[in-house]
Structure formats: C-alpha cells, structure tokens
Amino acid sequence: MRTSKSLLQSMFILGLIAITATSAFAETHSQKTHLTPRAVGVNLPMEKSIWHEYAYQKLDLYGGHKVRSHFDVTPFYQASTDKHDTGAYFGIGKGNGFQVAKAADVPAHGDIVGGYLIHNRDDQGEDASLLAGKVTFDPKQDIWGVRLDFFQDIDHPYKNLFFRASMPIVYVQNDMGMEIKDGTPVTFGSTEFSLADFFAGNVEVTEAMDAYNQQSALTKGKINGKRSKVGLGDIELGLGYKFHQTKKSHLFLSLGLTVPVEEESRGEYLFDAVTGNGNHVGLGVRMDSGVQIWENKHAAVRALFDLDYHYLFSATEDRTVTPKSSITSGFMSQYYLAGFKDQTGKALFPAANILTRGVRVEPGSQLEAMLALSFKSGGFVIDLGYDFYYKDEEKAWIKGWQDGMYGISATDYDASIAFDANQTIGGFLTKDDLNVESAKTPSQTTHKIFAGLGYQFNIVKKCPALAAIGGSYEFAQDNSALEQYALWLKLGISF
Q: Quick check: 36 and 364 in contact, CB under 8 A?
C-alpha cells in the first residue's frame, strides 16, 4: 500500500510539473479558411467531475450488493467568448476586418479590389463606382447538448477489467458574425448586388443581364448568418485494467478508440457547424489515478490526476485552399473570380467553388491532462481543478487537382472572348500555386479551470446515486482554438 501510494504521489507531482512547464508561445493566426474546434466529447472535467466518486472508487459491497455498473447523464451548455480573436483568424492579418474598395483606393485606403468579387469590366477608371464596404468578422459558437457516460466492471475472463463508453448528443450553432458597414453595391440591369449578397451566394449575372460580365454564384465557403447542426459527437470507447484500487487510492490504465459518426462536411459554409472531430478515427491510451491526501473524522481530500492521449488518423475532408500570395498579391483570394481555360461566353465563378475540394487531413496527437482536488464531507463533494489540452498542427495534402485548368480572372476580362493566360492573374494555376497551409488548423493549446458541486444519495438501498452542477472556463493560448465557458448538470446512478 505504501509503495502504491508513493508511486501515485510521484506521478501526481510529475504531472503537475509537466503541465505547468508548457513553453509554447502565443501566436495570432490569420488568412485561414478552416478551424477545427476541440471536439465536444474531449472534456475530462465534464466527464469526471463528481462522477469519479462512484465510477472510479471502490464500491464493492455497497449495502451487501456488488456494484458493477455506473451510468451518468450530463446536460450542458457551452459558448465561445473570443469573437474578435477568432475573427482575426479568418481575416487578412489586420485584426478582424478588411476594406473592399475600388482599384484606385487599394492599397492606400482599402485591402481588396471590389472588382475581384463582382466582375465589372467597364468600371476601371479612378472615378469608377465599384463594389465597396468595411467587413468585420466576430465568430461565435454555441452548443447545447447532453453527454452520456457509462462505466462497467468486468470480472471475466480476468478480474479488474473494465469497459467505458461516452457519447455527446449536441446542437451546434456557429455564426461568423459578419457585419458590413458603408457598403456600396453594383447594379446590372435592374438588379443590385452588395457584398452581403456575394458572400451569401446570391450574386448571379446572366448573359441576358450583361454578356460581358457574366458571373455565377458562390457555392462554397459562403458566409450567411447562423449555421446549425444536430447530431452525435464522436463515440469514445475504452477497455482497461485496474492496476490498483483501494478506498484511498487508485490507478487505472485503458486503451481507447474514437469512433466518428457524423456526416462529412462539404465546405459549403465558412466556419460551418460540426458535431465531432471531422470524421477521424483515433486510438489512444488513458490513465486515471487518485490518492487521498488528507482526512479526519468528517471529511477527506483526494487528489486526482488523469491523462488521456489519442492519435487521430487521416481522413478526407472538403476544405478550401487559397492561391498563394505570390500569384494574386492579395487577400481573401479564394473569393476572387476565376475561369477555366479557353472558356468563351461563359460565366466567371468565385475561385472557392473549385478550390474547395477533398483534402487529406491528419490531425495527429491529441493530449488532455486533468489535475484536481476533491473535497468530500458526508454526502457532499466539491471538485476544483485544472485541465490542459494540446493538439498537433494538422498535416494536409490536396487531392485530385488538375494543373493548367483554372486561372484567377483579371478585372477587365471580357466574358465574350476566350479565357487564356493573358486574361488571368499569374497564369493558370498548378498544384504548386495552392496554399494548403490556409486550410490547416494550427496546433492548439488551452488551459481550463473548473469546479463541481455534488451530493450523493441512495435511490434505493442498493443503488447509490448523485446529482451535481459544474462549470468551467477555457483559456486559449492563441486564436487557433476557441476560448469558451461551459455549464452543466449531472445525474448518475450505480447498480
């Protein structure tokens, strides 16, 4: 017993040192087209808070009955808070906003030439009235859901085996929070188009409207209000062994499997709502440990240290890549109008329509570590803790691109003539001209503080139960991850 307790105390200290010794420096990312937030189900504080008193403690002869099964239901709400920083992530590197203006005003008083977004070859002079407006992004994510957790002791074929499973059912709502001020629309025939119309996918200029400025609508990477989705998060399964378990300490190790179940995202909207990790299978290992560090007749304090590592394997996702800056020398160039080689009398189209495609993505390593103190007196339990989360920068490879087929259109292109290299900016695109970095989520590091308050009681003599409330706040080390708070209720039963 003394040896086991010393081992657990040593692991506790080493874990604290490892967590507090993170040395990564904050960085403000920009000009990104994709963000994969921390998956909803990857949340040790929400899972373990208070529930550890049943599922991970020794309850072997509770009222003369051997307790083997533990089930927990956790309704929750969480919301992001760092709207400006996330807006900068999708922005051009000048905070969370950018200015669309006529050519004569860029770059002195603007960032993006309006003629690249809505084609108007006749308005090329300095006094031309082109598409304009000040665009800002303030993205926000809200999630309502219920988390289901199950823990089952298994004594056959070997003693001390256990099985665990968890799954969130969620409603996710994402909003890019786009606002456009001082907007100037353009008109073709009797139809007026604004910047908001363009990003919503509502700009279509037909041959009948203007044969020289034909343009089809944006179909990928659209920005148009709130996007929501209801579905299952990733299913987490684990099979483990109780290496040590007494009334005062425990050490469990388990192998884990992440099973994605949501439908694939098609890249139709920027910052679209997803319920899982992007359809990536994961394999991992987890340690759950704890040791009682103080007690008297009426109360006790337990220290908990849990560590969960997963490797997420590659899968294909539809993401938007951008032309490299050496090609366009401009910002947000995935939205610039493009054409295909030798087209004549055909509409131009936003480049995102063909730059949103299958990308092979490998998220790599994901690590979560939780350190907590749990105070127990009578039936009451109070948890206070810290949670560390890290995820690798994604690796990504573009699939199925054909060189020399598409080019970014010059603003003075006449749609009635052949689209050749002279009508493009930088010639026809090759795979080497595409910036896959824009579609990758950088590494993520967050720090979360949390608290839980619960009460233990008996539904019947042989069924211990609990009711609890909890909350957390997650600080993001930089703007590649969402900063957010969460609140939850918890009901659990053992039998």
A: no
